[in-house]
Design goal:
The protein is built from 5 helices and 2 strands. It is mainly α.
């Protein structure tokens, strides 16, 4: 099950953070079709956000065709987003790189900026 983290300083709307984290879990194979998302109550308890925010995020994911709400049962993953499972060799290489970056003294924001710059350089014109 996915565990949501909310960064109130990010400038990104809370519901969008939930949507993005769900999409990332789908891309990495951490969530697969048939998996149940945490209930709104569980997300509220873990993140201290408004239940309507969670419901808004889940509605957006449903609108995108990624999940479906089943009355009385919960919200379930309907489809996956990509072939990048968390146990792929690329994941291992990125993990090793992140460990080296941290050992070199880079902070989270430094690593994010560097990685984003490399992505933009190599994926010009591609949609994310």
């Amino acid at each position: 099950m996915v565990e949501y983290r909310v960064d109130r300083r990010s400038g990104v709307a809370t519901y969008l953070q939930i949507v993005q984290q769900t999409q990332q879990a789908l891309r990495l194979g951490l969530l697969t079709p048939g998996d149940k998302l945490p209930t709104a109550r569980e997300v509220v308890e873990a993140t201290a956000i408004n239940p309507n925010t969670v419901l808004k995020a889940y509605r957006e994911l449903e609108r995108e065709g990624l999940v479906e709400a089943r009355r009385g049962l919960g919200t379930f993953v309907k489809k996956s987003l990509g072939p990048a499972p968390a146990d792929s060799p690329l994941h291992t290489e990125l993990t090793d790189w992140a460990v080296r970056a941290r050992a070199a003294g880079l902070e989270h924001d430094d690593v994010a900026a560097l990685f984003t710059a490399v992505l933009e350089e190599h994926f010009k014109g591609d949609e994310a």
